[in-house]
């Protein structure tokens, strides 16, 4: 039994060492530096369209979209920054996204702003 357990422990250790060598974490260089592909022309063009459309909507809605959708702030944080109620933030975000989609010529928000959730169309 002792030799059998020793063999299992040795094999487990060797497997862990091999995995560590293959999957180095905390490397000196950032992983993003290894990415050599640049944005293709379509994405650059689409980003310009989105930026232009964002500047065409009402400033209050633009501020909420940037705070919540881009910067990832919670509704509570956005409400505190804007000095209004959480319901107002939700309303501005919803109306702002709708206006943004209209300016971009999109039919639904799943195509640009959000990934579709399972079970919803």
From TrEMBL:
Key word Transport present: no
Gene3D superfamilies linked to this entry: Winged helix-like DNA-binding domain superfamily/Winged helix DNA-binding domain
SUPFAM superfamilies, A to Z: Sigma3 and sigma4 domains of RNA polymerase sigma factors
InterPro entries according to UniProt: RNA_pol_sigma-70-like (IPR039425), RNA_pol_sigma-70_dom (IPR014284), RNA_pol_sigma70_r4_t2 (IPR013249), RNA_pol_sigma_r3/r4-like (IPR013324), WH-like_DNA-bd_sf (IPR036388)
Record's keyword terms, sorted: Sigma factor, Transcription, Transcription regulation
Keyword Chloroplast: no
Ranges for domain RNA polymerase sigma factor 70 region 4 type: 48-100
NCBIfam families cross-referenced by the UniProt entry: sigma70-ECF (TIGR02937)
UniProt-recorded name of the protein: RNA polymerase sigma factor 70 region 4 type 2 domain-containing protein
């Amino acid at each position: 039994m002792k030799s059998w357990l020793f063999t299992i422990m040795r094999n487990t250790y060797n497997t862990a060492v091999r995995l560590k060598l293959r999957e180095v974490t905390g490397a000196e260089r950032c992983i993003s530096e290894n990415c050599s592909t640049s944005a293709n022309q379509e994405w650059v063009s689409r980003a310009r369209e989105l930026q232009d459309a964002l500047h065409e909507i009402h400033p209050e809605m633009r501020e909420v979209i940037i705070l919540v959708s881009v910067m990832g702030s919670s509704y509570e944080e956005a409400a505190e920054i804007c000095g209004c109620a959480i319901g107002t933030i939700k309303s501005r975000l919803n109306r702002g996204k709708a206006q943004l989609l209209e300016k971009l010529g999109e039919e639904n928000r799943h195509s640009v702003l959000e990934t579709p959730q399972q079970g919803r169309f």
